[in-house]
Amino acid sequence: MRFERREQRTLFLVIAPPIIAIFAALFLSGLLIALAGAPIFEAYGNLIKGAFGSRLAITETLTRTVPLILTGLAAATAFRAKLWNIGGEGQLYIGAIAVAAISSQFLTGVPGIIQIPILLIGGAVSGMMLLLIPLWLRLRFSVDEVVTTLLLNFVAILFVSMLIDTVLKDPLAFGWPQSVPVDDEAMLPRLVSRSRLHIGLIIAIVLAVVTYFIQSRTVFGIRSRAVGLNATAANFAGVPLGRTLTIVAVVSGGFAGLAGAVEVMGVQSYVTTELSPGYGYSGIVVAMLANLNPIGVIFAALFIAAMFVGADSMSRAMEIPTYIADVTVALSLLCMLVAVFFTQYRIRK
Amino acid sequence: MSELIDILSSAGLWAAVLRIATPLIFGTLGALLCERSGVLNLGIEGIMTFGAMAGWLAVFNGADLWTGVLIAAICGGIFGVLHSVLTVTLGLSQHVSGLGVTLFAASFSYYIFRLLVPVAGTPPTIEAFQPIAIPGLSDLPFLGAAFFTQTPPTYLAIILALVMAYILFKTPLGLAIRMTGENPHAAEAQGINPMVIRFGCIIVGSAMMAIGGAFLTLSAFNSFFPTMVQGRGWICIALVVFATWKPSRALLGALLFAFFDAFQFRLQTVLSGVVPYQLFLMIPYILSIAALAFMARRARVPQALMQPFRRGER
User: Fold this and answer.
1) B314 pLDDT higher than 70
2) Residue B303, domain member (yes or no)
3) Cβ B71 vs Cβ B56: under 8 Å
4) Which pLDDT score is estimated for B310?
5) What spatial distance separates the first Cα and last Cα of chain B, rounded to whole Å?
6) Separation of alpha carbons A345 and A336, rounded Å
7) Which pLDDT does position B186 carry in this prediction?
8) Domain extents for chain A?
């Protein structure tokens, strides 16, 4: 059995993989649900109801979509240039703690119209700073950034843990390790009343669309793609390698930091070490499911958010561990990889 | 200062070094074997987690400890097959495939654990491996307590490192593996099937990673809990670079690394209240990054690492 590269890819072959991957992942997870002794269709019925079945369910799912769009964009923009930023989780936490620190220490009482933009930028800049370390190590010492970004995730979370244990500890939290809350003025306005959905959703979608246009219509967009396809050739053709990768890192780390900032300012108001249920890692799956397309990221993030919210309520209704959501998400990544492969190659006997 | 000397001269510290190093030795050797054949295996973190869970669960259900280790190894091998199909047969991105395997193996192990082990206030435990004193050597003053009173898997890890060094550099099989990692097309011209070599290395390497994970639940601790691997897999990937892809140096690297870890843990108790404990916990990760920065340029990377091999395609 051999594989042969396809000369052309029809539109169908571009759109089909994520859909096939998601159904394949749901099928495989269905086997695991059956292993738990639960009826599969009833379980998935509960999952869909839990994610979309009521006003509350829908707003919760959309609320969860927000950080996933942003971490998905972080991974998608970086992977496009083959900058393997797996540090989204750490960058998210650094963005979150930066927002809590800046708002509570310096900007208390500053009106939201001024404070919110400052904090969003502050969160993004902090996230990008964390990614600039592994980028520098790659450019200066040719250290593979996969491992360094992964390791920095642990460092970042320990750093946050240290801050919320000491200088940023909330004295009113009964000794619970959580940060002081951000100022009331820093909270993002609600998008829908009587829900947790906030305008972060609009911000994330706008950023996805803007990213799409930057990637497809600007010199930087082409350069980042060229670097991803073949860094040596791009460099030879006059693309400034270091500068392009630095901009990519700034954008990618910025998105991840922003995810943390928005999660604190939109939902939690304070930081704990349980702020993110792996948004940074799920962002990688989002990006791959979207085939690194920024618009696709929005829909992939919605799918993953629905999985997590739906699985929560499914597991309350039936005896299925919530980890089934993580399993499905991981399986959808693996299925997507295989599905994309078969859009690029055909089997030849 | 006298406290530092106290720490360094306690046999407990040195015994802990070997204990902490054991999962790292298994993991690093496993990752090293994969990379020598030309495939980066980022599935390691998840495979270690799954090994920890599978080994523990087997023993919890009545299997003896070595059967637990064996089951962990078989599970690791199965994930190795998955990674091989993705990266060797299909030639997909080794980075993304590995991360996918990690995400899947880790979440799958949590799922199975939650499904089969009821939620309890205190996690259920097993009878873990007990230290075995090596006759004669363990009677040596200080050295005996420090190095020759370990649990069996620790001795196994050290032997494995030596065996792997021998196989890689002194046997035709080792030559075939290294050749596949350097230039699979040249290997094929010599009648070696690079696909088979890579499959074999990934499967065996993944089994070693899983044994490293199983050490955590069957020897270092006696229970399983989510996130217990704590980035050890990623540290192993860094240690492979630090070891410049040599098994003997992998052994030394893991021991050196474990020394710092054991040392920081003891320093924590001395300096508690003065310095936040999180700063100490960061040390292993920061050290790994520093080691990478220090060694990356000097190390001679297997030339075909991360390049998929497709027959007739360059």
Assistant:
1) no
2) no
3) no
4) 80
5) 60
6) 14
7) 93
8) 65-288
ipTM of the shown complex: 0.94
Partners of A2 in beta bridges:
A348
The count of other CB atoms within 10 Å of the CB of residue A321 is 21
Is B275's Cβ below 8 Å from some Cβ in A? Answer: no
Contact list in A for residue B231 (CB cut-off 8 A) is 150-151, 153-154
Residue B132 lies in a domain: no
Distance separating alpha carbons of residues A147 and B238, to the nearest angstrom: 7
Query: What is the C-alpha to C-alpha distance for residues A1 and A22, in angstroms, rounded to an integer?
Result: 27
Largest CA distance in chain B: 66
What does the pLDDT look like over B73-107, one tens digit per residue? 999 999 999 999 999 999 999 999 999 999 999 99
For A158, the closest of B95, B107, B282 (CB atoms) is B282
Minimal C-alpha gap between A159 and chain B (Å): 7
Residue of A89, A106, A78, A102 whose CA lies nearest to A279: A89
Residues B263, B206: contact at Cβ < 8 Å? no
Which of A2, A141, A147 has its CB closest to that of B234? A147
* Lowest model confidence (mean pLDDT) among A49-53, B13-17, B272-276, B300-304: B272-276
> A281 to chain B: which residues are within 8 Å by CB?
99, 103
Whether residue B307 is contained in a domain is answered as no
| Domain limits for position B149 | 2-117+144-295
User: A24: how many CB neighbours lie within 10 A of its CB?
Assistant: 17
Residues in A closer than 8 angstroms to B281, CB to CB, are: 158
pTM of the entire predicted model: 0.94
Write out chain A residues lying below 8 Å of B288, CB-based: 147, 151
- Spatial CA neighbour of A280 closest among A68, A61, A128, A132: A68
- How far from chain centre, in Å, is Cα B137? 27
Count: domains in chain B: 1
The reply to whether residue A337 touches residue B96, judged by beta carbons under 8 angstroms, is yes
Q: What is the pLDDT of residues A106-162, one digit of tens each?
A: 998 889 899 999 999 999 999 999 999 999 999 999 898 999 999 999 999 999 999
What single-letter amino acid sits at B163? V
**B137, part of any domain:** no
> Do B209 and B233 touch, CB atoms closer than 8 A?
yes
**A327 has a chain B CB within 8 A of its CB:** yes
How far, in whole angstroms, is CA B170 from its chain's centroid?
A: 23
* Sign of the alpha-carbon dihedral angle for A205, A207, A210, A215: negative
Could you tell me the CATH number of the domain that includes residue B234? 1.10.3470
